[in-house]
Amino acid sequence: MAITAYLKPQHTKIFVYFLMNIELDLAEFTVLPPFPHTRAWEAMHREGRIFSYDWNDYTADQVVSTPSR
Q: Is this structure's pTM higher than 0.70?
């Protein structure tokens, strides 16, 4: 199940409650890397939120952009 980076705080709480109640064996959470040529990259670049353009940093466990407000 993929969850977008645009979840509102109240939806995040509902999602966490759901996960705690379905008896998962494993849950893995990663950060959204704004890969070039995607809508996420275009929006974050336009808003000046990307602080690393080093391709080596673009993994699912390193943050390369600031969160939206």
A: no
Per-residue tokens: 63: 């943050």
Q: From CA 21, how far away is CA 17, in angstroms rounded?
A: 6
Q: Which domain holds residue 35?
A: 28-69
Confirm whether 11 is domain-assigned. no
DSSP letters along the chain, please?
A: ----TT--HHHHHHHHHHHHTTT-S----------TTSHHHHHHHHTT-B----GGG-STTS--BPPP-
Domain-located, residue 5: no
Look at residue 68 and tell me if it is in a domain.
Answer: yes
Q: Read off the pLDDT of each residue in 45-59 and give the average, rounded to a whole number.
A: 94
